Amino acid sequence: MARTKPQHFKTKEMNFDIDDLSDKKYVVKRDGDLDVFLFEKIQTAIANAMRESGVEDFKLNSFEVASMVHDRIEEEFYEKDMLAHVEEIQDIIEEELMLNGFTKTAKNYILYREQRRQERTSFDEEDDVFDKGFISKYKHKPSPFPTELGKFIFYRTYSRWLPDKERREYWWQSVRRAVDYNISLAKTYPGEAEDLYDAVYNHEVFLAGKLMPLAA
Fold it and tell me: In terms of CB atoms within 10 Å, which of 19, 110, 151, 209 comes out highest?
């Protein structure tokens, strides 16, 4: 029996009237526009990550994982008359890679999502608590993470998504946000703020675990 095309798709953040759309399935892009949902795009993304990770028979393995991703999207979204956001689809891809034992591929996929776009501008306007140019010198420093696993955990758990940049925060940005929140709680002088920033950035001081993802 053919499924009846719903008159309204629901998402957590928005509704779409789809009376004028075809029977194709759609996803919500980062800018809010709709795009056609294509299984091939999912498989290609997974295959590329597997190939880079040295997975043998990556074409077959990517098809199998992509099929699991497809089934979850159908069950969690389309069968409930909901549209999937591109970020939700990518999160499902990460989860299925992990669940199926492709840990290295999942790590590479996550890091690729964060590093695919070069940093342009963010936090360009520095307030008086930091000397002019202080934050800028950290933007191009080598990664302070001693292991790739540490970097992986940061991006997966603590780094915030930046919709306007279509990526998650870099480490220097997350540190800036967390330090800004800390110094907002009490009067802080430039030298103190800079010392705290440098210590957190270089993992010499560790803030409360919940502060990094929650600090405004």
Answer: 110
